[in-house]
Each structure stands twice: as C-alpha cells, then as structure tokens.
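Worked Example 4.2. Consider the chain below.
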Amino acid sequence: MIFNPCFVTGTTLGDTWFSLISKLWDEGRRGVLITEGSHKGSKRIEFDAVFACSSFPHDRPLAPILPPGVGEVPTSDDAIQKYFEEYLMNPKLLPNEEYRYSTWINGKLHNPSAKHSGGIETQIDWVIRHFREKGYGNNHCYIQVGNPESNFAYDISYTNETERRTSPCLRGLDFKIKDNHLLMGVVYRSWDLYGGWPENMGGFTLLNEYVCGMLGDVKPGPMSCFSMGLHCYDHQIKAVMKVLGKNIDQYSIY
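Applying the procedure from the previous section yields the following structure tokens:
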C-alpha cells in the first residue's frame, strides 16, 4: 500500500483548520467505507496520519470564520467556552451520558501522594502541582483519557444508534513547558475534522490558558495534534468544497 503521512502548520486555530481541510482534500484517502461506528455504511475521506501545529492558537476568535454562503459554521467562541466548561472541566454526567472527557481530565482519583487533599486528586490538578513541585523541565505531565476496559464497549450489541456504546475518541493530552510557554499536544484515535476539530481544539486552547493561569508565571503557547483517523464524512463534502471555493460539480471526483 501507499502510506501518506501529512504535516500541517498554521498560525491561528482557524488558519490551521482551513489548511487541514485543504490538505485532506488534496491528499486524504478517499472513499473509506465505515464498517462500524458513527455513520456506519457511509464513506469518508481520511488522513492516513497527520500532525498539525498552531503557532498562535490563542488569538481570537478561536472559531474559524467561514466564507459567506458556506452555510452553518461548525462552532462559535460561545460554544467553545461552553464546551470547555461543561465537557472538559465538569465531570458530572447527565443521565444519558457514559462519560465526558472531563471524566478523566477533572474527575477525582485516588492518589496517596496528594496529602494536601486527603489523597484525592484530578489529573489536571496533578499536572499543575507536578510542574510546581518538579520544575518546568520535566516530561511527566500527560493526561490519559479512557481506560483499557472502555475498548470492550464496542463488543456490546445494539439494535439502534442510541444503544451503541463507545470509547473516547480523545486519547491523551501532553503538556510541556519550553521558553516559559505551555505547549500542548492532543492525540485522537478518530476525529471529525469539519464538525469536531474546531470546537475540540478551541476547548483545549482554553484548557491551556487555564493551566497557565493556575501556574501564574507561564504563558499560553503553541498547540499541536496528531491523529491516524482525522476525517470528513461524505455528507460534509459539499460544505468542505464550499470552504475551499471549489465548484460543486467536482463532487463526483469523491
């Protein structure tokens, strides 16, 4: 087979998103049949592997600004703020929720070393404390999302989409401090580029700013992300073509 890894750089989050959309259209693997998962039976265009970096992700607006007439925008700064507060920082689940990313980011865990809090600590609080106690030159601060048992959710049979069980698409958040700036790396196993990436990365950018605020003397820095499953679904392709300014008649090449 021909394996095509891609590397994308951008300035703002919006600029990086547009660059990813363009790169996916030009170099993504087309016609990938979804045999199980979201939109089962349809197809998507997907990167074999992609690493992307945003140099100035904290510039506002965080949400991309779409060209006139493209259609509904994938997110907004207000939606990103809500996503950060509710899905990344608030671990309390609604009755129909199996998990949120905050289940692992800000959920309480047993840690005997956290004597200041009675042996209970969240991963994000541990990251902040570890930087304070061990210095900014350590490579330890990584938040793990999910657990091995969550993979077995895919073995559970279901009769309709509402019964389908999943494991988290986000798998990890990597924190590094270099030149007094907090860098963050984001790892996804599967990722909707058009509808998910802008809001997800906007939320992680706010998380970066939150950690910097708690440390007090570190500035928010560049963001990077990696995935072997970053994609657009076939029902999004027309919107993608509008973003890229392509003639809709070219849809047939997909």
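The mean pLDDT is 93. The two ends are 20 Å apart (CA to CA). Compare this with Example 4.1 before moving on.
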